[in-house]
Amino acid sequence: MTTVSDTYLENRWRVQPNHANNYGTVHGGNVMKWMDELGAMSAMRFAGESCVTASIDQMNFHRPVPTGDTVVIEAFVFDEGRTSVNVHLRAAREHPRTGEQETTTESQFVFVAIDGEGSPVPVPDLVVDTDRCRALRERALGWRDDDREN
User: Fold this and answer.
1) Starting from the edge strand earliest in sequence, which strands make up the sheet with 70-80, in order?
2) S-S: 79 plus which of 55, 86, 100, 131, CB 3.0-4.6 Å?
């Protein structure tokens, strides 16, 4: 059985000029793409199957990430349905020399597990058995309330 912690992934992308908009900051579409890719990997780790994006909850961009800085994205599964996988994603601006981070956006994506023909398949039950698993899941479940405060 797969735990919330087993699905936790984190990746970094250095913002290059080809990722930037005309303001010299990362284009929101790139951040969304990176979140989608990492979220799918987290969902697949949980489901043990290929997963496709079914929906994306709201995405509010709270601050820009300039060219030369790093975008850090973390993803983890926090809930499941019969064939669906709910993944919480957080993107942050990271200063490359200090490691200091500022959240830029958070969202929740729903993925559907599919078989080789593209038909939905059942996913296993998610295990929430440690303090870290519970803390991650609680953070995801409370996200909408936290985002409204920003």
Assistant:
1) 9-14, 70-80, 84-94, 101-114, 50-56
2) 86
Q: Supply the CATH number for residue 9's domain.
A: 3.10.129.10
The rounded distance, in Å, linking the Cα atoms of 40 and 15 is 21
pLDDT in 10s for each residue of the chain, 150 residues: 899 999 999 999 999 999 999 999 999 999 999 999 999 999 999 999 999 999 999 999 999 999 999 999 999 999 999 999 999 999 999 999 999 999 999 999 999 999 999 999 999 999 999 999 999 999 999 987 665 454
Answering whether pTM is above 0.90, one says yes
**Residue 25 to residue 1: CA distance in whole angstroms:** 41
Count how many domains the chain has: 1
